[in-house]
Amino acid sequence: MADCIFCRIVSGEMPAEIVHKDDLVTAFRDVNPQAPTHVLVVPNKHIPALTALGDDERRLVGHIIQTAVKVAESEGLNERGFRVVANCGPEAGQSVDHVHFHLLGGRALGWPPG
Ligand code: AMP
User: Fold this and answer.
1) Ligand 1 geometric centre to CA of 76 (Å)
2) Which of 5, 40, 58, 111 has the largest count of CB atoms under 10 Å?
3) Is 5 in the pocket of ligand 1 (CB under 6 A)?
């Protein structure tokens, strides 16, 4: 989608610090990091929200999570721990309408989030 920020990052039209890319997903550093490691893992294809995921996306979602875990490992977070979280809809604070999972780590993370 031409007006989607994350589609533009996936296509290379908008710059981002990409840490992983393959045929299904792209992972890049969040522009406003909330932790020493804050990476977003997004599907390369435009899916507006978790609620728009269909049965066909099961493999894709699994791959997103596995990618987040691999990035966490490469960031040296396996022993310390990390969080993978996705916001859906206004009350969760979803601000970009393209499915994305946040990988957060490198500091103690409070729970529950505010
Ligand atoms: P959410 O609030 O869960 O929808 O998360 C959206 C995230 O995208 C926020 O953490 C933003 O800081 C991040 N973000 C927005 N624009 C960009 C961008 N151009 N590059 C990297 N991260 C971005």
Assistant:
1) 23
2) 40
3) yes
